[in-house]
Amino acid sequence: MYLHRVIIKNFRSIEYIDITFAKGKNIIVGKNNCGKSNIIKAIDLVLGESNPAYVKNENITEKDFFTYKIKDETKEEIVVTNDIFIYCELRRDEGEDIPYDMMLKCSGFYKYSRSIDKDAIKNCFENEFLINPDELRYEEKQYINPKKNIDQVIEEFENKYIFAFVLKAYRNEDGDVKKDLRFFYREDENSNWTMAFSAPIRNEFLQSAIIPSFRDPMVQLRINQWSWYGKLLRHLTKNHNKDDELKKAFLRVKEIADEVFSDVKQKISNGSFNAAFPGTEILFQFSADEKPDIYKNVVIYIDDGYKSLITDKGSGIQSATIIGLFSYYINYVNTKLSALLCLEEPELYLHPHACRTINYKLDEFLNDGKNQVIITTHSPEFLKTIEPNMNIILARKNEGKTAIHQLNVKKFKDVLVDNNQNEVFFADKVIVCEGYDNYIIKWVAEELYGNKLNEENISVISVGGKDNISKFVDLTLKLGIDTYIVADFDYFLRDKDEEKVRKYKDKGAKCHESIENLGERFFISRFGEEGKKIFGLVSKVRNIIKQNYEEKFYTAKRIEDFRGEEKFDRLEAILRTLRINGICILSGDIESFFNKDFRLVSETHKLSLEKIFEINSILNNGCKISSIFNVVEIKEFLDGIFHISETSDGCRQGCVSV
């Protein structure tokens, strides 16, 4: 089974979100304090090892309820919601076995005799949680007891493929919190639900391990009979062929302890201790013991040049150890169950190579889709994966509320090559460019605006050619990221008519995507509703050029090639309108903006990585980019990003009539 869907309402920074998770790898990204950890915490509350509805467990307090502000002209009121709703839905694959033998020790539960409407989730099962099982008549509920009748459990679950655990928490006027966990199951999405009034069977469906950003091995590696780590150690120590040798060793340790502590034991026992507590003996012994639950005495040491307890080691070593132990437990001990591993910020205190190693281990843990991983991260390293169907959830906070955008990267995998492209998931705004011009844009921005790109969380991303621009823009629009474009002049022209390209091949004709491939949706994102007209105008002008100046349509590299032609001035005006509104189509190619007397890059050479290194060397020696490169058009473009506000018609200030 795997975690398919999570709905969270009124929990911490989350007013309402609905997330669909993939079977394999799921990555939650976003800036600090956007609510990523709150999503993981909500999952842990419902699917974690401890019972979320346990009365004495204060895992939900008044501070966990979503809080918002109501403002009017005279006052500001802070409102705290009264109910928390967390829905975790598990899916079972066709033909997947259910480990009924693991349920033999589970407590029984009452199920409601009436079916629950399949759409009850839309109302967060509000009416269902009002039903008090203690007030129902005998015929209105049925008791299911795995310990006494496992066949009854098999009959309940064998033809069911959707299972949901639903937690509701209520806050009363005194601030006390009441929690209720219920269990729902059904055949498919078109079937009504069966409701159980409690959920004693949870980890028997899906084994989970939650590793928070603040690592505490004492918590993640709890040793008891219910935790996965406790079960692992009990499995490893039970019926081992070294039992007799262990008992002898423990007995010897006890004898040595008695000798070491004999003096202090005698003096304390002969003093007031024995008088106050007659018949009581104080014992000092080392942690080893020969009692039946010997596994509870196991401690982990790590020797990385200095041997010490795992609790004394860094977060990176702790994470790697916990992941390794959980993987071992799932692969070699509890082999019947699928597993969910949730890991917050695995990059903490790790150098890049270690991050890549942890990422590889997470991919291995997936075990061809049997297991599932959900991580939160600020590192692009964890967005590089061998997993073809990686699911990315982008979390953002808008007006104090966590919101999400999500997508499966399979469609965009060919434009997410390295950390340069993966940085998009952590940006508020993105400037998309063709190639090495991303360095030029950063240098110009740094000279003219200082650190403003970083301050406003703007990424400048190269997509490796004009044919990748529209696909990358499609990605950023799906993520709701404010997107800008920088491209050479020929991006305004050209198309993929290979026959025409062959016709002018000897004159340098090229075949590639153009500004028209960005689509109307992108223009609307930049101009508002006015974008439809602007997009239509761009398409119209392109068609006019192709019809009247076909050769130039496929060969021109700069706007100067059209000087003297009819409507040249209008073409200039269109380019400027686009430029100051975030679509920077340069008046030439990037190389033509270098000074004529600057021999590093001539008009006949393309900008290369080697030349970028040379330019960087010159800049490091005190030269400014503006002294070797004409920055006017890029400055105009960046001014539109940093300074120019929007007018009422959706077009930014500085728009010329088109």
Q: Would you kindly provide a written description of the structure presented here, covering whatever features stand out?
A:
- With 658 residues, the protein is α/β, with parallel strands linked by helices.
- Among the domains are: 214 residues, no CATH class; 216 residues, no CATH class.
- The chain is 31% helix and 20% strand.
- The radius of gyration is 32 Å and the shape is elongated.
- The C terminus is likely disordered.
- This is SMC domain protein.
- It comes from Caldicellulosiruptor owensensis (strain ATCC 700167 / DSM 13100 / OL).
Short summary:
This protein is of the alpha/beta class and 658 residues long.
Mind describing the biggest β-sheet?
6 strands, antiparallel
The counted number of beta strands is 22
As residue ranges, the low-confidence spans are 644-650, 652-658
How would you sum up the global shape? elongated
Helix count, DSSP H or I runs of 4 or more residues: 20
By oligomeric state, this entry counts as single chain
Rg of Cα set: 32 Å
Helix-strand category: alpha/beta
How much helix is in the residues?
Answer: 25-40%
- Read across the widest sheet, the strand sequence of neighbours is 2-1-6-9-10-11
Distance between the termini: 57 Å
Portion in beta strands:
15-25%
Mean pLDDT: 85
